[in-house]
Structure of 5-deoxy-glucuronate isomerase:
Amino acid sequence: MPKLLVKPKGDQGRVTHVTPESAGWTYVGFDVHRLKSGETVSGQTGDKEVCLVWISGKGETTAGGEDFGVLGERMTPFDGAPHALYVAVGSDWSVTATTDLELAVCSAPGGGDFKTKAIAPGTHPQFIRGKGSNVRHVTNIMPEDDNSAHSLLVVEVITPNGNTSSYPSHKHDQDNLPHESLLEETYYHRLNPPQGFAFQRVYTDDRSLDEAMAVENGDVTLVPKGYHPCATIAGYDLYYLNVMAGPKRVWKFHNAREHEWLLKA
């Protein structure tokens, strides 16, 4: 199995590149591009659908033959809601940075008659999940109930310092609806301040997979199967961008039985 921790390569250009082939799975692709003002990144979706997420910065954007103008407004992922753009199958797209820009490119198999469209900040309001030291702030970008894509599910989460997240431990690695859905998943991690670190564990019930990772600013973790909780350390807030896809666009998870009592506490 490929390594589950993917470190960024360099500071500029395409710093992260995850493909189904490199991850050893079927559905999810994930790239991060860091551009200086005036630089351009472009692509073609082919038989995939793509969600562009403005992690930080602004850029002149075209996609599917349409000019979307300047998208993006926040300068860090900890400062407000994201701009995003869904790019349909068989489309070209291009973003020219008008400030320093960090752009995520989330991809998965396409299908259906979905249209290219901008996803404005606030389309899906932020909400709080959990309580006590298990609080996190969730902003859906492409949730399952918006009927906006064939495969992609995209969400970002901010976990305050010292808190746990994606917890109690849950998994979604069985195509067994209505009880559980099979979804591959990537986590793109950012820390505030950036010199911090957090932890993530990916493990299965039988411990045939059991990997604990210290994640730093800009790291990506792969979740091919199993449970995948995170924990921050004191003084450092954790942001992550999740991309999920599988044979059905449904997020139905199974909690680890030994930790379910926390949901009632």
The chain has one helix and 25 strands. The chain has a mean pLDDT of 97.
